[in-house]
Amino acid sequence: MAFIDLTKAFDSVNRQALWLDLSKIGCPDKYIRVVRLLHDNMSATVLSGSGDETEPFRVDTAVIDDEIHHRLSCASGAFSRLRKRVFENRDLQAKTKILVYKAVVLPTRLYRISWEDRRTNTSVLEEAGLPTITATIAQNQLRWTGHRAGLLFDVDGVLVRGGSLIPAARRAFRKLLDQNNNFLFPVVFVTNAGSCQRQHKAQQLSRLLDVQIAPEQVVLSYSPLEMLRSFHDKCVLVSGQGPVVDIASTLGFKKVISIEQLREHHPLLDMVDHNRRPTPSATPLQKFPQIEAVVLFGEPVRWETNLQLLVDVLLTNGSPGFAYKTQLSTQLPVLACNMDLVWMAEAPSPRFGHGMFMLCLESVYKKLTGRELQYQALLGKPGLLTYQYAEHVLRLQNQNHKLATIYAIGDNLMTDVYGANLYNRCLAQQHAAMMPPARMFAQSTGSQMTTAVEEDLALAAAQCRSILVCTGVYSPARSSAPGQERYDNGQSNFYGHRDTVMEADLMEPSFVVEDVEAAVDLVLQQQSSATFHL
């Protein structure tokens, strides 16, 4: 606990000098007049613990009134009577003492700790589960101005590395909660993971961060697929790991086939591992439906099996039981989620991601056909559709009110920073040209996929700012970040997907900070400053 000097806590500033100083630092006269109206001819009363209220008295400066001295005396007496029985009683748990403190001590405005304990304010607030002063100020400002900012958090490399929580994460989220454990801003977790249901990811984040996270606050790489309703009635083959069939059904797909089901129905297709070749069924199988589209959810466990069967489906136009048709005039639609070439786990260097599997599939397809594999949609960061969907989720948390600024916090230049900056450019272009989102997306990405997206997911934020943390893929300790190395011939090594255009300005973050706690501090500072200038 800590001792507060109430002579400093109460207003003891010469008001005339205060108005003069505000004017000197450039505060608008209109703002000063509004503040003066809150102080001129101000009076106060003191409310006792029993509910009795004193007569009003005039407040000019903070000369501690007799009533306040009386209040302090009562509080001091109450604290003294409880000291040995409660606060110094080692048989009581700290949680019980905190409950007594909130019920008895806090209402009397007394908060005490022995100086020799040498406890910092931060450690006391963390133990008591109370918000920081910065968070309290931000909360009070938001009561008057409303939510003008929304936060997008990456997960791997920002909050966790593999299954381990990054220490700054819990401290950061304590600063984002008010006294009722509600978020000060709309918060959404945008991750390129795609091997679990969003409710499971929300439960995992809640447990790790010790904060209640709702499934509606989670955007996974596949989440925008629910908007692509023109594919929901098609028979789709899904590739990835985890409950991908259940995930596809949850998103609205009605006819879903997994790689394992395809392998069991056509046992002669998967011939790499001799020990796991399926035995042909003695009874005739039902007729297998023709596949009309392919959905890549994430990197599979057995790359060789998925590569083989996906190529079989693509080169037979959805009928893998027949021979290849290398002269097909059209290609089956392919929807791919998560383009991350690498990602950061507990290992000292980044690990292969789904983007690496896609690179393998593209190479095999081109080698066999001489053509580039075409994607009908690329989902997940840095795709614009994912950021559009994430802004929609932020607005739902904000009672559908527009947000002035979206802060995107991530650890990867090629996904988090590139995607946030690309979305920021798209926002600026739309606001300048007043162009519908679908048309703007088509111009920005060359994709025809936007025709299948609902038009009501409008882009509304004024700007999207990228914040890069140094706890994941990006580290200032490396000579160059992954995706920015140069080959011996001097050419840049670009880690982005084949269909992503290398633009240096899109890989420049708005801010670079040490960790997610520093990112939250930056957002609180930025929003406090923005509120002051309203």
Distance between the termini: 36 Å
CATH class of the largest domain: Alpha Beta
Helices, by number, come to 17
Number of discrete domains: 3
Number of E strands: 17
Regarding quaternary structure, what we see is: single chain
CATH topology of the largest domain: Rossmann fold
Strand proportion? 5-15%
Q: Can you tell me the CATH superfamily of the largest domain?
A: HAD superfamily/HAD-like
Mind summarizing the main beta sheet?
A: 6 strands, parallel
Can you walk through the features of this model?
- It is a single chain.
- The chain is α/β, with parallel strands linked by helices and 534 residues long.
- It has three domains: 6-130, no CATH class; 138-221 and 381-427 and 464-532, Rossmann fold (3-Layer(aba) Sandwich), CATH 3.40.50; 225-337 and 340-374, 3-Layer(aba) Sandwich (Rossmann fold), CATH 3.40.50.
- It is 38% helix and 11% strand.
- The chain has helices at 6-9, 15-24, 29-37, 66-87, 94-105, 121-128, 133-145, 168-174, 198-209, 244-251, 259-265, 303-314, 354-369, 384-397, 413-433, 437-445, 516-532, and strands spanning 43-44, 57-58, 149-153, 160-161, 164-165, 187-190, 218-219, 235-239, 255-258, 293-296, 334-337, 342-343, 351-352, 377-379, 405-410, 463-469, 511-513.
- Helix 4 runs antiparallel to helix 5 (94-105) and helix 7 (133-145) packs across helix 17.
